[in-house]
Amino acid sequence: VELSDQEMGSVAAKGPKVKIGIYFAVWWALNVVFNIYNKKVLNVFPYPWLTSTLSLATGSLMMLISWGTGLAEVPNTDLDFWKSLFPVAVAHTIGHVAATVSMSKVAVSFTHIIKSGEPAFSVLVSRFLLGETFPAQVYLSLLPIIGGCALAAVTELNFNMIGFMGAMISNLAFVFRNIFSKKGMKGKAVGGMNYYACLSLLSLAILTPFAIAVEGPQMWVEGWKTAVSQIGPQVIWWVAAQSVFYHLYNQVSYMSLDEISPLTFSIGNTMKRISVIVSSIIIFRTPVQPVNALGTAIAILGTFIYSQENDARKIYKGLNGGNDFKHS
Ligand code: 3PG
User: Fold this and answer.
1) Where does it primarily localize (predicted)?
2) Ligand 1 atom 3: the closest Cα is on which residue?
3) pLDDT at 102 over 90
4) Is the pTM of this model over 0.90?
């Protein structure tokens, strides 16, 4: 069958859209599964420092095997690359462990409601620490984000200060992660998948001593015995699932950044949170009051308005020097 020039053009135009659609669907699905298993594990084995470490360790191991077997190409890195990756890894580690600590204390939905306020942190850090200015509409779009998150927080039935602060710290840390990665990846030839693999390895090295200091093997052994006595040996599969899915969703999200602009990415990330919030409320039967749901809806709507208003390529999710960053 011969296609006309016009038909060929339309197939070519649909190709990237289909690819991005697939990336998004896979990213959200993996993220929902991660969040559910992560919470199932934390409910019976509340050691977020260890589970965060295991997520990074599993991802690192998967990538070492992929490199060793030739499944993935070994990245060509030098000392400068690892030096520039270091601040990214510190921020990634803090953001990851803080989110997991949060989820060990509050409902998954609540952590993600607060995390939907990340754009507000991005603007505030860029404004006050980097001196960037934004159009008035961007600042105005922060009002529903902050107001909605605040309304959801004050009406949260199972509010817990550590859970709240963990999600807030995670927001702040991930904003720095994104700013540092943008700087670190400029002009480097490491693609999204390998960039995230190196990030996992370095974060694992940073987090391990802290996990041992904060929780430690004695607590883990006792906690594990309790978890197995409650659930049975299959709890190990829950841990495996949360670890594998953590790596996979992050890997896909970094890979998608090779293809899309940070603006599209930030919209995708917000839509991801909606799927996590809704699915976790259903699965864990989280009680929700109408006014709490209203606060969540306002915050998420605010994030969409923000995405429309903000020239996001400047500040948000500048993770890996994807196409848009090469021009910025
Ligand atoms: C984590 O454990 O790192 C968080 O759940 C990550 O959250 P995010 O990728 O949804 O921002």
Assistant:
1) plastid
2) 96
3) yes
4) no
